[in-house]
């Protein structure tokens, strides 16, 4: 496993294990399939992954207790814990901050965190963060030895990132960085904001919630033709890991195969060559033409009071943008169930406050509802088009 050192000191595995998309018992629950997840953690530990990232709220609060149980079977000095404090309910008062911080320590059966972050310090959350004195509390915890490195994660503009970075003394920051967002979401500028201030970067969403594995057929062909042995995920990980100020690349892994593939990429790591960068640019250009919605399936917008399954709806729409199979779209959209489909959206706007990608969700739901109605009206019950293709 490739190692990067925090300011020349602690060696950290370049691949970090993100614990927000652990295997679940079924699609209807956030409950973790512990048997599978233990196997993934054990494989990662055995292959040199020593950085584990979570939050108080991942998996509806079940990620931290699971990770605490899994990691505490190993010597404490053999792994680094990175976790986060959310500036939204259940954190509504200064007492909540104290209570939850102690609860987090107990969940991990530890008396210190290696890396601790304010979760999504951005224009939507800063009022609460400042009113409740998050930073002062955490700074004191750092001075008392409960936190080794203090940072923040954020999904916002480069200007807001610069403002937050300059507001306090930080040890690192976590941003969304991947080859699609490099220009589209100004990730390059964000990386430069942090690098120019000497703040090491931990990367979230390097594979865009799995979206960069399911590119359109044309993009996949471009990558595959250049290197048939490289997985789509390996291109995405190598892109961000090639940046010198990147300390750790977090991958929210859901299967053992993903763990193995990512470890393979980050062991004997090779930065992207100029030629490979050019290939990637061609693949991105092809993908951009599909009109996909930049949803990462993070689920922060859920639950929707009207019952819409927002991430799943966007995933189905994006799959159609990439693959253009009307029959597949209609079947899967129907399977979503009338009560979870886009037409149920009442435009309350609640979801938008939580979406780190700033997607205009109600407008998109309105468009998808019209699109889906038309597709269901015009698509035959049987996959004639697909059958013709196969013949
Ligand atoms: S705007 Fe629509 S999709 Fe968003 S929470 Fe409200 S009803 Fe649900
Ligand atoms: S719409 Fe936004 S908040 Fe909801 S899952 Fe997608 S990226 Fe996350």
Structure in a nutshell:
The protein has helices spanning 34-46, 63-71, 94-107, 126-131, 134-143, 158-167, 181-184, 187-196, 217-226, 232-241, 256-266, 274-288, 310-323, 326-336, 361-378, 384-390; strands spanning 3-5, 11-13, 15-18, 51-53, 80-85, 113-118, 147-154, 172-176, 201-204, 246-252.
Q: Could you outline the blueprint of secondary structure elements for this entry?
A:
Elements: E1 3-5, E2 11-13, E3 15-18, H1 34-46, E4 51-53, H2 63-71, E5 80-85, H3 94-107, E6 113-118, H4 126-131, H5 134-143, E7 147-154, H6 158-167, E8 172-176, H7 181-184, H8 187-196, E9 201-204, H9 217-226, H10 232-241, E10 246-252, H11 256-266, H12 274-288, H13 310-323, H14 326-336, H15 361-378, H16 384-390
Parallel strand pairs: 3-4, 3-10, 4-5, 5-6, 6-7, 7-8, 8-9, 9-10
Antiparallel strand pairs: 1-2
This protein binds iron/sulfur cluster (2 copies).
Structure description:
The protein has 391 residues and is of the alpha/beta class. The protein folds into two domains: 3-288, NADP-dependent oxidoreductase domain (TIM Barrel); 310-390, no CATH class. It is 44% helix and 13% strand. The protein contains 16 helices and ten strands. The strands form two sheets. An eight-stranded parallel β-barrel has the order 3-4-5-6-7-8-9-10, surrounded by five helices. Strands 1-2 form a two-stranded antiparallel sheet. It is globular, with a radius of gyration of 21 Å. It starts with a strand and ends with a helix. Bound molecules: iron/sulfur cluster (2 copies).
